[in-house]
Amino acid sequence: MTSASFSNVPDEPECDECARAYQIAQTTVRTCESFLNSFMQVRKDRNAQGTPTDNEQDLLRAMLVFACSGLDSMIKQLIKDALPKVIDQNEGAEVSFRSFIERKISKDQKLNFEVMALSLTSKSPREQTLKRFIDELTQDSLQSKDQVFQITSVFDIPSTTISTTPNDLRDVFLVRNRIIHELDINFSGTNRKRVPRRRDDMVKHVNLIFKTAKTVLAEVDKRCKAQKS
Length: 229
Fold this sequence. Notes:
Low-confidence stretches: none
Number of helices: 10
Helix content: over 70%
Number of domains: 1
Order of helices and strands: HHHHHHHHHH
Radius of gyration: 20 Å
């Protein structure tokens, strides 16, 4: 997969279990390119030279929000489609998933009872328990780099593999959250009452999200192909 506007976009995987996640990644990249192209066209049409207007910056904000949503959706699709096979193929993933279950059960008595009931009554306890925890893993949106690291750890992917610049990834999510939850409003601003967003900065943020998506997809694809030792 190539992009005229962004670098490090996800590559097409080999395993069928990663195919739908890749489609999500493709759609995300195309939509972000559309936002960026619209931003550039609006600027060109009015022969703009200075600081982008608030409306123009909203296109950049939407681009970043959509990129983060795409990463979220892609990872959740991988959990639904690929995690069962990865657990079967990869001992490290099996251990990571078991640890995740143990932590969840120890903190949630109701969940503990549900898992116990599944184990006692289901014809396929492991399959039903796995399905229950896949639902658990995919119910919340990813709003921080720590959440990304935690949810990808069930695939036995180290956080250092996901991102070599975790502080940069943290900062991207801080920008995303400020846009989502505070609308980028800054009441202390002098000329404008919103946090200014520069094109180059926002493109850099989106590129980091795409790089993260590319790494996650490639690592899951690799684990789907690996044979359990």
